[in-house]
Every structure is written in structure tokens, then in C-alpha cells.
Design goal:
The protein has 126 residues and is an all-beta fold. Helices cover 0% and strands 52% of the residues. The protein is built from no helices and ten strands. The radius of gyration is 13 Å and the shape is globular.
Length: 126
């Protein structure tokens, strides 16, 4: 089955930028919605962004809207998350996830996604 590997995290100053990558292997993800989620210690996993199978529709959590941009490259089996104007509240482990069914829009509902990979740590300092 599909495996997802997140990368691109690191330590950044407040106001800085990072681009996260999600590489899929084992099967293609071109027919599935993809999502980014994050989790801080002691907190519930929360929705960050999602993108439809064609890339024509996106949605974001209110806390990141206007600062983060999700995109995908189906030919390369890749999903990206560009993060700008980072704040300490963005500090978390970021995970990539795949929608449960093909050609289906799920929005930010975490129950509609499968989670893969170990995540990538993003730490934003003041």
C-alpha cells in the first residue's frame, strides 16, 4: 500500500518560510485528495490544508489561510506545503495524508484521511 514520507521541516525564525514535501511510493496518488495535518505535544492533531486530486480546489484552516499554500505534482507523486510568515504557534510535527476514496472531496475532516509517515518537525522561534 501507499507510503508517505514528509520532509523539509526544521528550525526557523518567526516571520520566516519553509516548504514541506510529501513523497508517495507504492501506488499513485493522482486520483486522491491529499491533506496536511499537524500535531503539537499534548494537543490533538489538527487540519492544516487539503487539495483535490486535480489540484483545482484547495482549503485551509483559518489559522494558516493567507500564509500557507498547498500544491501537488501528480507526475512526480508529490505534494507540497509552502509556509510563509511563520509564528511560534505553527510549531508542530507536520503529517501528510491521503483521502479514503478516489475522486472525493473531504475538506478538513481528519476522519476522512489515512495517515502515513513519521512526519517532519517544524520549530518556529521568537
Amino acid at each position: 500500500q501507499v507510503q508517505l514520507v514528509e520532509s523539509g521541516g526544521g528550525l526557523v525564525q518567526a516571520g520566516g518560510s519553509l516548504r514541506l514535501s510529501c513523497a508517495a511510493s507504492g501506488r499513485t496518488i493522482s486520483s486522491y485528495s491529499m491533506g496536511w495535518f499537524r500535531q503539537a505535544p499534548g494537543k490533538e492533531r489538527e487540519f492544516v490544508a487539503t487539495i483535490s486530486w486535480t489540484g483545482g480546489r484547495t482549503d485551509y484552516a483559518a489559522s494558516v489561510k493567507g500564509r500557507f499554500t498547498i500544491s501537488r505534482d501528480n507526475a512526480g507523486n508529490l505534494v507540497y506545503l509552502r509556509m510563509d510568515r511563520l509564528t511560534p504557534e505553527d510549531t508542530a510535527v507536520y503529517y501528510c495524508a491521503v483521502g479514503l476514496a478516489r475522486n472525493t472531496w473531504y475538506g478538513g475532516n481528519p476522519r476522512a484521511y489515512n495517515y502515513w509517515g513519521q512526519g517532519t518537525q517544524v520549530t518556529v522561534s521568537s
